[in-house]
Specification:
There is one protein chain. By secondary structure, the protein is mainly beta. It folds into two domains: 33 residues; 140 residues, Alpha-Beta Complex (Nucleoside Triphosphate Pyrophosphohydrolase). Strand 1 and strand 2 form a beta hairpin. The radius of gyration is 19 Å and the shape is elongated.
């Protein structure tokens, strides 16, 4: 790998302790590799008896249904970002937002900021999503990853004890069929 500025080879160097970072010795540029903030929404449909919307991403190999997620854009707050993501991916209007929590997703080097979104409107999916399902909160099965833990925390806040999916060994939630 070469530095885009100095065109010199990038090397791994100690960074004041046990950490090493990729750095250009010619110009000093450092690749910090900090986690990316990702926004997620537990969408409660206030105009459909409080059902929860879970969606299936076109890129997922299995038929898994999960939370609406997306990347935060430069210049927007997390709240503005999740409102935008919900509108872009489902065409729903968010009435209110409440922070559920912040969760690590180490495998993808991400930090998930999860919200409960009370929303309404006609559901029209973006091309990024291929299907959706509506669930009564007590019928949702949580998955053992960042957004699944956010769902479980939200369910507990509503007095519902979460039910957990059992994943086959070596499989991720997005690789299994949950229909």
């Amino acid at each position: 790998m070469a530095c885009a500025t100095a065109l010199a080879p990038i090397v791994a160097e100690e960074d004041g302790g046990a950490k090493t970072r990729l750095r250009c010795p010619a110009c000093g540029w450092t690749h910090w590799n900090n986690p990316t903030p990702v926004l997620a929404a537990v969408i409660e449909l206030v105009d459909r008896d409080g059902q929860i919307l879970l969606a299936r991403n076109a890129a997922w190999p299995g038929k898994f249904f999960g939370l609406i997620t997306g990347f935060m854009e430069a210049g927007e707050t997390p709240e503005d970002g999740i409102r935008r993501e919900v509108a872009e991916e489902t065409s729903l209007t968010v009435d209110s937002l409440d922070l559920i929590g912040v969760y690590e997703f180490l495998r993808m080097n991400q930090v998930i900021i999860a919200y409960h979104a009370a929303a309404r409107g006609e559901i029209v999916l973006s091309p990024e999503l291929v299907d959706y399902r509506l669930f009564a909160p007590e019928r949702v099965r949580c998955w053992p990853a960042g957004t699944g833990r956010a769902m479980a925390d939200w369910l507990r806040s509503r007095g519902v004890e979460p039910q957990w999916m059992e994943l086959p060994p070596g499989k991720r939630a997005t690789e299994v069929d949950t229909e």
